[in-house]
Design brief:
The protein is 53% helix and 0% strand. The chain is mainly α and 110 residues long. Helix 1 (2-11) packs antiparallel against helix 2 (15-34). The N and C termini lie far apart (43 Å).
């Protein structure tokens, strides 16, 4: 939806709104990238109710503390307002658990 807003505003010639929406997208990507993009992006999906599972090795996973920090940073930039989710999804009880692999991938076994 955020990128759709950028495109729609641009197509309508509303460059001011397109720039504002693009800046939101840049801030979102900057926050996610600070935590390791793939692992953090998967956690963000979990935060909004779409569980994607952990990042595969050798990529890292986020601890519960890092997930909470990520959520707080996203909230500070207004991310959860942009995506219009019900409050129940954003409750602390909805925090995704830190990912622990259920099995070892044979490719990465020692």
């Amino acid at each position: 939806p955020l990128y759709h807003k950028v495109l729609r505003a641009f197509e309508q010639g509303d460059l001011s709104t397109a720039r504002d929406e693009q800046l939101k997208a840049v801030r979102m990507v900057e926050v996610i990238a600070r935590y390791g993009f793939t692992a953090a992006a998967k956690c963000v999906m979990g935060l909004i109710g779409v569980e994607c599972g952990p990042a595969r090795p050798p990529l890292g996973v986020l601890t519960a503390v890092r997930i909470e920090q990520l959520r707080d940073e996203l909230a500070a930039i207004g991310f959860f307002d942009w995506i219009s989710l019900p409050d129940s999804i954003l409750s602390p009880q909805r925090m995704p658990a830190p990912h622990v692999p259920l099995r070892k991938d044979p490719v990465f076994q020692e």
